[in-house]
Structure formats: structure tokens, C-alpha cells
Write a structure and sequence with these properties.
The chain has two domains: 7-196, Lambda Exonuclease, Chain A; 204-311, no CATH class. Helices cover 47% and strands 15% of the residues. It has helices at 9-17, 19-27, 37-53, 70-82, 125-138, 164-167, 174-196, 204-209, 220-223, 238-245, 263-271, 282-311, and strands at residues 7-8, 61-62, 87-95, 98-108, 111-118, 144-152, 168-172. Helix 5 (125-138) links the parallel strand 5 (111-118) and strand 6 (144-152). The longest helix is centred in the last third of the chain and has 30 residues, at 282-311. The protein is globular, with a radius of gyration of 22 Å.
Amino acid sequence: MNLNMTLSKSQYIRGLQCHKSLWLYKNKPELRDIQDNQQESRFNTGYQVGDLAKKLFQNGVEIEFDASDFNGMIEKTKKFIANGTKVIYEATFSEDGIFAMVDILVKNGNAWDIYEVKASSHIKEYHINDTSIQWYALSKAINLNCAYVVHINNKYVRDEKLNIKELFAIDDITDIVLQKQANIKAQLLEMEDMLKGEMPDIDISDALLALNERFADLAYPFQYKHYYHPKFKGKYSIKVVLPTLFPDDDELDYKKLGSIQNGGDAMDTFANLHLLKDKSKLDEIKKDLLAYCRLDTLAMVRIWEKLHEVIK
């Protein structure tokens, strides 16, 4: 049974995490978050890492992103494959309701290997789900051999010249990706049925209680609208949630910090430290970075305490 909907891989991951979130994203696009500076900085970091990873598989061809012509991207991918291209960056497919762009697709004998590039130092669950849905789509168009996640090697210490092979670690996740294939079709059919109906109802108490075991998912109740305040205005970043829950609290005010007052500033400053010519400023920057990190941690603790009061 073919699906009538089309989901990107990120939308599939969203659906796995929360049906209500996917329903809102697809049916209420006006509620989608506006990209902020921190998100933009994260995207830029991801792009930089992706460009570096391409050097692991050189002499490839890239499918240029064109939001106005996804079909054109798919056709270019088919053309490169037919012409015997060995390495394709951003290879694009749309199969059985899934639109997928593969970071790096490499020919291996009579089949292809998938390489997904992640700007993190270890593999996370959503990386596996991300690659699994790509395998599901691509396997309907081409023969596949292995699936890998390319991520940062946090044990690498750079000398003067950047060593690309040492910068990255490559993990083979083929076995677990294959194991997940059996459930994907049913998951997609369930999502399709859900999207056709009314907005799903989710019990807020379960979502909040889950924080006891999943502290890393502190944004969850805000992101998926389980806890909402008009002042959030559809956003759920800590810079919006914190002052709403704790107005007029100087200890939790990011504007009271020094030169680094948001995650984008922190990431950009840290990433560009090696370019700093005036080394006398290092201590001041270190102090500002630590102050920002302290407040970020304190803010999460205070928000967790507030949510815990709500569910008592």
C-alpha cells in the first residue's frame, strides 16, 4: 500500500517523537518557529562540518538545493547514478511518501553506501532513526550496501594543519538500521491516518513526568505545547521560556551577562578562538563563556523545578 502523504526525514523524526507536533507542523504551518540566531549558528556549524566531511570522499558531484524544484534535484540524482558517478553529495530521492537527501552517497561495487554527517561527538538515537528512514526510501530506488554515521572525533587534537581523517569518526550502523526497517511502514501508515484526523490529544502529566527520567528533553513540554503561555508566542527556547516563568529575576537574566548572552554568541566565539590575535583577551572571553554556561545550567534547573511543581 503506497502512501498519499510526503514527509521529509526530519518530519518523520518529529512524528516518532510526538504525533501532535507533526500534526501541528503539517496542518498549522503558521505556528512554526521562526529561526533565531542560535538555530542559525547551529545550522552554520552543521554546514561547515558537512563541507569538511566531503573531503573524506573527494571528486564527488553535488546536487544543489533548490526549494522550488525538488523534482529537478531528484532527476539530477538519477542522471548522475545512470552516468556512473561514484560519489554524490546531497543525493535526493522521493520514494513511498518519504523525501530524503543523503549527505554523501558512495558507490561500493554494485551497491551504494550511505554516509550521514552529524556535527556531534557521538551517535544519538535520532541519528539512527534519521538514517533508517533514508534507507527505507533509497532501498526502493537503488541497491544499498552499508549505512554509516560520520561524526566528530572528540579525541582529535589539531596541530597546525587540519587532518580530516582524524577529525572524523565513522561508525557502521547497518545492522540496527536494518532491524528498524520492519516497523517503518506501519509507523508511516499510522502517521498518515493521524494527519487526516483531528489534532491528537496528549496527556500533559505523562510528558512532564517523563522529565524525571529524561532530563535532557527539558524542552519537550514547551516544544510540543504541553505547557504553554501566551508570552511564548509559539517559541520554546530557553531565552523565551525563562523570563516568562521567572520575570524580574536578575539572577536568571541573560541580559545581565557580559559579551556572550546567547548560544549563537557562545558557539561562534568558541569556534573562532583560534583566530584571536590579541591573546590578552582570552581570560575575559573564558570568563564570559563560563558565566553563560553557568546561567544556562542554572536556568534548566529552575525550569525543571517549576515543572515539577506543576505536576505535583
